[in-house]
Amino acid sequence: MFTASESLIDHAITAPPGQSGARILEEMDIAYSDGLARDMAPLYERVKSVIPSVEWPFFAPYIKAINELKKEKNAVILAHNYQTPEIFHCIADVVGDSLQLAVEAAKAEGDMIVQCGVHFMAETSKLLNPEKTVLIPDMGAGCSLAESITAQDVRALREAYPGVPIVTYVNTSAAVKAESDVCCTSSNAVKIVNGMGSDRVLCIPDEYLAQNVAREADVDVIAWKGRCEVHELFTAEELQQYREDDPGLKIIAHPECKPDVLDEADFSGSTSAMIKWVTDNQPERVMMVTECSMSDNIAVENPKVNFVRPCNLCPHMKQITLPKVLEAMVLNRTEIIVDPEIADKARAAVERMIELSK
Ligand code: 13P
Ligand code: SF4
C-alpha cells in the first residue's frame, strides 16, 4: 500500500493543484522506461490516433500509477464525455453524459469516487453516495450554468410563480437542487417537463435548453437567463458556412446551443446521444457542435468517420488533468462535503429525476 512521505504532504499543502504529481510518481518509483512502454503498448495502440506519441511518455507513468491506486484504494473513476482522451480512455471506469454518470454514481461500488468532470457532477455523486469519499481533483472546475443561479433566486421564482413545478438542470449547486421539485439533464428534459402534470413548468437555469425543450414539450416553459459559456459561442451563420463549404457534412448539436443553431443541425441530443448517433450512422464527415474533446474521444472507436472540429473548450472540464487525479487519490483532495439538510432535499430532486427517466 503506497503512503506519501511527510515531506511530500508538506509540499502538497502549499503547492498549487497538479504540482505534486511528479513527486508522487518518484515516491511510487514509477517512471517512463522501455519496460513501462512495453507494458503499456496495447493501451497506447488503442489511443494513438488521438494522443500524439510525444505526449505518451508524460501520460503513461501517471496512467500506470492511477490505475494501481484505484485497486489499492478500491476507487472508481467517473469521467464525463468532455474529459481529455488520456482520462476518458485510459483511467476512467465509467464514462458518460450527466445522466449516465448520476445513474452510475448511484450504483457505484467501492469506497472512493474520483469525479473527472466539474464540481456539480461531483456534488451529485456525493448526494447519491453520502457514505463514500467523493473527490474532485480541482475545486476550480466550475460551470457557467451552475454559477448563473442561487438558491435565493429559486425561492424568489417559487414566490413569483406559485404552484408552478420547478425542473432544474443538474448543472447547478446542491443548494439550488434542494429548492427544486426535480432535476433534469439534456437527455431527459422533455420527458421530465412533460411528466410534471402541469400546463406551466419552470425549466432553469439554461435559457437555451429551456427554449429547445419548449419546442418539443406539450406545456408552457418558463426559462431563466443562464447560459453555457461553451455552447453559446456557436452561431447559426457559422454552421451555414460549414454546410455551404461542405454539402455532405453532417452536423449534430447539443441542446445547450441556441435554438437557431439546432435548426441547422441534422440531430441534437445529450453528449451520449450524440456519440450514439455517430456510432449508429457512421457519417463520412461530421461536425460535433459541442465541447471539443468529444470528437477526440469518439474518434478512437469510429476510425472511418472524419471529424470536422470547431474547437470550443470548456475551461472548467479542462482543469482536470492526470497529475491532479493522482494527487487527489494520494492526498484525498479535494473532498466534496454537502450540508446534510441541503443534501437530503437535493438528493430527493435527483432521485426523482432518475425514477422519472426510467
Ligand atoms: P450532457 O453530458 O448531459 O449532455 O451535458 C453536457 C454538459 O455540458 C455537461 O457539462
Ligand atoms: Fe458548464 Fe458548459 Fe462547461 Fe458543461 S460545457 S461544464 S455546461 S460551462
Descriptive account of the structure:
This protein has helices spanning 6-14, 21-28, 34-39, 41-47, 56-73, 85-88, 98-107, 119-128, 144-147, 151-160, 174-178, 189-194, 207-216, 236-245, 259-263, 271-281, 293-299, 322-331, 340-356; strands at 75-80, 94-96, 112-116, 133-135, 166-169, 182-184, 200-204, 220-222, 250-253, 267-268, 285-289, 306-308. The chain is of the alpha/beta class and 358 residues long. The protein folds into 3 domains: 6-141 and 317-331, NadA-like (Rossmann fold); 146-228, Rossmann fold; 231-308, Rossmann fold, CATH 3.40.50. The strands form 3 sheets. A 4-stranded parallel sheet has the order 2-1-3-4, sandwiched between helices. A 4-stranded parallel sheet has the order 6-5-7-8. It has a 4-stranded parallel sheet with strand order 10-9-11-12, with helices on one face. Helix 7 runs parallel beside helix 8 (119-128). The chain is globular. The mean pLDDT is 96. Residues 81, 97-99, 171, 185-187, 228, 256, 270-271 line the site of 1,3-dihydroxyacetonephosphate.
Biggest sheet: strands, sense, closure?
4 strands, parallel
CATH evolutionary superfamily of the largest domain: NadA-like
Q: What's the helical proportion of residues?
A: 40-55%
How far apart lie the N and C ends?
40 Å
* CATH topology group of the largest domain: Rossmann fold
Please report the number of helical segments. Answer: 19
Number of strands: 12
What hetero molecules are bound to the protein chains?
A: 1,3-dihydroxyacetonephosphate, iron/sulfur cluster
User: What's the Cα radius of gyration?
Assistant: 21 Å
Just name the CATH architecture of the largest domain: 3-Layer(aba) Sandwich
Structural class per helix/strand content? alpha/beta
Number of domains: 3
Low-confidence stretches: none
